Amino acid sequence: MSVAEKLPAESWLAEHRAELTGYCYRMLGSPFDAEDAVQETLVRAWRGYDRFEGRSSLRSWLYRIATNVCLDARKAADRRARPMDLAPPSAAGEPLGPPLPEAWVEPIPDDRLDPADLVVSRETISLAFVAALQRLTPPQRAVLILRDVLCLRAREVAEALDTTVASVNSSLQRARAVMAEREVTAAEPYSPTDPVQRDLLARYVDAFARYDVDALIALMHEDITMTMPPFSWWLRGRDQMRQALLGSDGSCRRARWLPTVANGLPAFGQYRADDQGGEYRPFALQVLEVASGRILATTTFLDAERLFPLFALPPSLDA
Description:
Helices cover 49% and strands 16% of the residues. It is an alpha+beta fold. The longest helix has 18 residues, at 31-48.
């Protein structure tokens, strides 16, 4: 097949980019790794399109390629996690310890994902769910995502993974058992039009801007967790949060916040004033999980230099 003949196929394949991104992100736990995997998948599919014989659906064929790409990627990297997956909670005032880059599940902007995927399977793109997936073996992870998240039939999954239906069903049973043990707490999906959520987030940002610790604690769930990748240090509970906030240098005071959305959850780009006070510079991307009108978890990603461009957040704000 000539290049000219392949051009329509290239457009057709590109239509699957968002759906493949969601799949690769769940497999790999990083939007950057997922983007690389999707690009490699589409390149391989384009190069091999003339050999696609149509014995399976185009979708199954693409997932087969994407799965192989992701499995190859996992051979070269450790499994990603969240801090609470690796260690018990810290105590307020304890040292953060050394940073562990590329160890953590990273956030992904909603606009990189298939809108239909966000509507139907929003909870399966959450940080907690993606982290739980990382506890599975890569083949089990692929089976669970393809069957339970993307709702492919067992025969389609067997075709995508080049295995048997019996093997797919066996892997799915084991994967479901492991996921059941993880007890993933489901946060409420973010709804910008929900007046309760809007009020909660507005009060949270206002309390942080004034650094009103009592007001902040009043907005938090009793068992709130706070993590700060790339550090393994993390906290659980309002008492620990209060101690940490009171013991802070107060550098969050007068910070500026720009709203965004990550993993179907409310998020904010946090900016802090530079030493000269001339402009505000990126500090962190904070992702919130809310439930029953309270903050259930905060994840503060300190790798602002990489994440802000991904979320289309400006590199600075005027004072």
